[in-house]
TrEMBL record:
InterPro entries: 6-hairpin_glycosidase_sf, 6hp_glycosidase-like_sf, Glycoside_hydrolase_63, MGH1-like_GH. Keywords: Glycosidase, Hydrolase. Residues 56-447 form the Mannosylglycerate hydrolase MGH1-like glycoside hydrolase domain. This is Mannosylglycerate hydrolase MGH1-like glycoside hydrolase domain-containing protein. Residues 486-496 have a biased composition (Basic and acidic residues). Residues 1-25, 467-496 are annotated as: Disordered. GO terms for molecular function: Glc3Man9GlcNAc2 oligosaccharide glucosidase activity. The keyword Ribosomal protein does not apply. It comes from the Bacteria. Belongs to the glycosyl hydrolase 63 family.
Amino acid sequence: MDRSTQLTARPAERETTYGPPGAHAPAFGTSLHVRAARVLDANWTGSSTVPSRNLYPHQWSWDSAFIAIGLRHVSPRRAQTELETLLAAQWADGRVPHIVFNPSVPLDAYFPSPDFWRSTTAGRPAGAPRTVQTSGIVQPPVHALAAWLVHCADPGLSRARGFLARMYPRLAAWHRYLLHRRDLGGAGLVSVVHPWEQGMDNSPCWDAPLARIAPAPARSFRRADLAHGAPEDRPTDLDYGRYVRLAADYRDAGYADGGGEFAVEDPAFNALLIASEHALARIAGELGAAGTARHARADRLTAALVRRLWDPASGMFLCRDLHAGRPNHERGVSGLVPLILPGLPREIAAALVRTLCGPHFGLGGRTRLVPSYDLLGEAFDPHRYWRGPAWFNTGWLLERGLRVHGERERADALRTAVLRLAEDTGFAEYVDPYTGAACGATGFGWTAALALDLHHQAHRDLRQELHKDLPKRPAEGVSKAATGTFDKRDEGGDRG
């Protein structure tokens, strides 16, 4: 690796206790920062970061957004490059593909591989790029949120490089694609056309709509994932056959939207779009344009989300299966993610917190991190992919959501748990929600990156606590505090 691309570790510092002053919380020193930075170095390809060298050897869309959020604290330039590389593979219709393939990786290292997706041929009607191979489906739109936070880490560098000026039109086109081409239910919300698009691939929330899909023959594909993970922790062959069938049908239709057998309105996907609409409004303001229309659109989408997917009886948001014409009553962590939205009615936010901390998810009681699926559900499995294990990216999102709605003590406790488990497990892909035991890959990209983000925010909170009684003066080089899904922790990155 060219050492010029490596992250700079900070000099040694005293240990820092995460959590409110006087609380019993674990102590972390420089080790987490250094170890997380080393993971990101090890996963760096020269232009982007892979989630895992062995299991996921290409660039993934929402992984790169989360990774950029962590990278901003130690290398804002590389965080910018992460997003620039991803968006350089954007299709002409605006979609951001969920995988950008590295041509130096052998075809048999990952399935579905480029020769399955055939983006440069099958994707030509939708404007797939000719010079890079990608998948044809998408992932949750965290990118504008990531771009704004990366800008805030070093506004001077961002402005000097024209980072936001170059990102804004691509991000706007990405949102237009989702809002115009993926409103398959006609109610204003975005639909996913494959479980892989939602990111929580194997959730029981997809079992009912997937049951209608005839699986591809087992002999028609070879699963590379089983060579790197325990089969009992991965999706079943039956589920994988259905994933392959859906993807092949979408490809064979030229990646045209609206004609497939799977169409689901998902609460997390839409909540992340809303958060990114607010971020795009702030980016527009930074570039000298009015962001009022985007804030208004985010408010309309929030209202549609509540109207369409909120279920008072469950105390959370539910997925809606468009082909069945009804909600799916499985409780997945996706239904809690809208807590990140500041525009939620107060009573709905309070109900989400009760559900998060209640018997179905057990935060602060039975579980160490938030499980990906209902603890009481028939399909719950603490180790099988997205059917129960706890993931660090959803923990990061829910920590933000708790802060947005004034739940500081719970947010502090969740942050402490994320940091402790990330370091103790070697930055595992996911963990058993009860024991915290590592599952999946270790040295996982977004786990390291989001632990870095929470680590720096904990340091910042501690400094603010220690200095709260000192005379205040304006900070230099820090933009105005953002509102909405952002707080002052996000402004002016701490690069150590």
